[in-house]
Fold this sequence. Notes:
Blueprint: E1 6-8, E2 15-20, H1 30-40, E3 45-49, H2 52-57, H3 69-82, E4 88-94, H4 96-110, E5 116-120, E6 145-150, H5 158-161, E7 170-175, H6 186-189, H7 193-208
Parallel strand pairs: 2-3, 2-4, 4-5, 5-6, 6-7
Antiparallel strand pairs: 1-3
Amino acid sequence: MPHDFLVTGPKDAKITIVLAHGAGGAMDTTWMETTSAAFSERGLRIIRFEFDYMSARRSSSKRPPPPRAELLKQEFEAVISEVDSQGILVIAGKSMGGRVASMIADALGDAGRVSGLLCLGYPFHPMGKPDSLRTAHLAEMKTPTLICQGTRDLFGSQEEVSNYKLSKMIEIQWLKDGDHDFRPRKAVSGLTAAEHLATVADRVASWTTTLRKSASP
C-alpha cells in the first residue's frame, strides 16, 4: 500500500531529502515540522513519510513498537521507489529513521538510486548501553554521509563517538551541549535550540552541494 507523504520545499529543487521519523515520534511532530521548514527555507525539498507501525497508531489506541530492522529496511526501500525525484536524492532520518537509512544507503547508492545519507541524531547505542554499538556497518560506509549530533547525546556523545571506527565518508556536525534533539542548555552553552537548528540547516544545505547524482549501474 502506498505511503502518505508530507512535502515541503520547492518542487524544482535540485536536492530532495526523504526523511524518516524516530522510533516514538510521527512525521508531523513539532521537531519534524520545524526541521523540515528550516531545510526547505534553504531550497531543499523534504519528503516525510511514516513507517506502517506509526501510521497504525493514528487509527488505534494501541501503540505498537517498531518492528525488527529488516522489515523497516524493506519498507524504506519501498518508499524510495514511490518517490518522484529527478534531481539528487538523499536518504535521511531522525534517530531510528537515520539508522534504518544508514543500513540501506550503500545498496541504494550502488543501484544509482541515492547520492547521500543524512542522520539527525544517530543512535550509536541504546540509551544506557554504551557497549551495545550500532556502528559495524558505519566503518565500511561508502555513501557520502553527514551525521548531525549533540555533544551530550545520550545515544552517542562526542566523547564516546571519538573512539569509534567510522568510514572516511562520514562527516559529523557536532552541536555544542546539544541533546538527542539538538537542544542545548542555554545557561551552559549560551545557545538555543533554534540556533542549533539553523546551524544544522546551513550545514546540510552546504553539504548537499557536494553531492553528485548517482549513476545507474
